[in-house]
Amino acid sequence: MIQRGDRTFYKNPHSRKVRGFHLIMVSCGYCKTDFALYQKVGKGVLLRMYADRIIKSAVDLSSKPGALFCPICNKQLATRVTLKRKNKEAYIMIRGAFNYRTP
Ligand SMILES: [Zn+2]
Fold first, then answer.
1. How far is the CA of 18 from the centre of ligand 1 (A)?
2. 85 CA distance to ligand 1 middle (Å)
3. Which of 46, 49, 65, 78 has its CA 20 to 30 A from that of 24?
4. How far is the CA of 58 from the centre of ligand 1 (A)?
5. In the sheet that 67-69 helps form, which strands lie side by side, from edge to edge?
6. What's the CATH architecture for 10-101?
7. pLDDT tens per residue, range 55-86
8. How do 48-50 and 67-69 pair as beta strands?
């Protein structure tokens, strides 16, 4: 049995504190499982998650997976890219595959 909202999260070892963020909980848009706690900066719509702003996640990020899949329904939620300009790792979120809210 899966208890929503009571999942085990992996702490992201690459997480760093950023300034002026607010916390959001990103969840799977298909099965609604909570997926990642994220430090969002700015008011815009979430299009990508910078890898170092993810505090904890339902999947283990320590090995820098190339894509993020929901651990419950296995749908793909995001693809990892390296942003050349900033030399940063980010996960580009797949449109319609996720929701987020203030935890
Ligand atoms: Zn799911």
1. 28
2. 32
3. 65
4. 11
5. 48-50, 88-93, 76-83, 67-69
6. Beta Complex (2.170)
7. 999 999 999 999 999 999 999 999 999 998 87
8. unpaired
